[in-house]
């Protein structure tokens, strides 16, 4: 398995918030980096932070995880990734997908990115009481006379 560096970034305290949540749930790999895009920072400030992480891990593939498609962290990561096969950018996934990814092995950053998107889709659910209500009503009507 290749060592894949993960850079999680987003607006405000998104990245540090994800980091805090993951710390409550599991041990965070040393290859994961959390970069908040704070008020007052410029695109170039964020780009410098991203490039420093990549430069210090130049033999590794890299996966960027941004909070929003089209937001500044996403655009900066996309600019860095353009034309580089070893860098993948994803956005909009959730805490559950990141948690599951910690316990998975991926050969490439691209494979990792594809998995994050799929895990996020599977883990996004709407609570529905309809099935519960239908089951409860069916059981009541089927209790006519014993065993």
In short:
This protein is 48% helix and 17% strand. It has 6 helices and 4 strands.
Unreliable spans are none
Q: Characterize the overall form.
A: elongated
Strand order of the largest sheet: 2-1-3-4
Helix-strand pattern, N to C? EHEHEHEHHH
- Overall number of strands: 4
- The helix tally amounts to 6
Helicity level: 40-55%
N→C terminal distance: 57 Å
Main sheet: strands, sense, barrel: 4 strands, parallel
Mean pLDDT: 90
Structural class computed from helices and strand pairing: alpha/beta
| Rg, nearest Å | 20 Å
| Strand content range | 15-25%
What would you note in describing this structure?
It is a single chain. The N and C termini lie far apart (57 Å). The protein has six helices and four strands. The longest helix has 15 residues. It has a four-stranded parallel beta sheet, sandwiched between helices. 48% of the residues lie in helices and 17% in strands. Helix 2 packs across helix 3 and helix 4 crosses helix 5. With 147 residues, it is an alpha/beta fold.
């Amino acid at each position: 398995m290749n060592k894949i560096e993960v850079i999680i970034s987003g607006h405000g305290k998104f990245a540090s918030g994800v980091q805090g949540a993951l710390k409550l749930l599991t041990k965070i790999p040393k290859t994961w980096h959390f970069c908040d895009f704070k008020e007052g920072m410029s695109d170039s400030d964020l780009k410098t932070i991203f490039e420093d992480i990549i430069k210090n891990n130049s033999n590794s593939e890299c996966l960027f995880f941004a909070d929003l498609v089209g937001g500044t962290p996403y655009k900066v990561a996309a600019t860095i990734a353009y034309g580089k096969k070893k860098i993948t950018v994803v956005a909009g996934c959730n805490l559950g997908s990141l948690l599951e990814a910690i316990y998975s092995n991926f050969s490439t950053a691209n494979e990792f990115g594809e998995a994050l998107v799929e895990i996020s889709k599977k883990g996004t659910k709407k609570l529905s009481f309809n099935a519960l209500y239908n089951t409860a009503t069916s059981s009541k009507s089927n209790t006519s006379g014993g065993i």
